[in-house]
Design goal:
about 375 residues, TIM Barrel, single chain, 2 domains
Length: about 375
Amino acid sequence: MTRIASVKPHPISVPLNDPVWTAHEELTSSSVIVVEVRTDDGLTGYGQIHGSPMKAICAWVERFGEIVRGMDALAHVAVWDRLFSLTCPRPGGIAGADGLPPPLPRGERPQIMAAIGGIDIALWDIKGKHAGLPVWRVLGGEPRPIPTYATGGYYRPGAPDKVYAEELAGFVQAGYRAVKLKTGAGSPADEARRVRTVREAIGKDISLMLDMNAPYDVDGCIEFARRVEPLDIYWLEEPLHWYLQPADFVRLAAATSIPLAHGERELTRFTVRDFIATGAIRYVQFDSTRAAGFTEGLRVAALAEQHAVMIAPHTAPELHAHLVAALPRCGFGVESHGDAARNPLSHHLLVGGPETRDSFVHLNDKPGFGVEIDWDYAKRYAA
């Protein structure tokens, strides 16, 4: 049996030369936690976590590493269930009377689920390496190019609309046939003007998604949607305030012809379930690196397929392309970051992974996820 011998988090943060904004927050660095899981027979798997605060998440990774040490490294479901069970009260669990930690604090659930996800992704990497197969093959996928789009247009305070138009037009010149623009920081009228400038720059044949980062209430978003509908928008991503629920998305969906996308901040299949089942969204963007891992991502995908909802995982294309490759009916594609200055980690930290060209991610036959870590770079920017 291949057993888990150690689990270690490696927090990495690269300062951005030019900080940028989404509608929600300022971004001053590009950060990731690499989770390194080693087995007693010499295999090493790597997972990724995109979340904060990094110190808290790393503490949970280390704590969970002690709990899963000695478990079967190939039994990813058993490991996931062991850790997830600790998030809820259980008979005999008061004060850890059953030998396990007492129920974990409710206030840290995002960090807890992120830690579970990072360990789970590393175990999938190990599973592929143990079998001598890429993860997409372990999942029963086929070696097909996976569509991808480039995300850009992060806000630079004071910059004119043409700056963002030139940036996304540059992605098109680099070969992307689909691009995503950050929106939502201004009024519906101002944002619609900005979107129109970008559409004119990239041309009518390029798919244009809008990533809104939860800026509006329902009425405000209906106004915005109606202003941009003539611009042939592919989807509105995270369009509504964080506290609004599936019923609010249903109302918005009924008021616009533009499909809705959502899910990158949902923690489990249970929280994303009603967004899928009610028909509120057409694209689900569950992020395995932010919450719950690959094992839960597969469960979300199964639910989405039942309701004819497409899977478009958020970020980490070198990982999520494996998932999409195994979902020919509901796998839409993955997100890429074409700008190395905005996302240096995907361009410099991760080596040997799939190649991105001509708006597709081309997976390879390397075992596991096929991604190695540039440890010199990781040590240089250790957080």
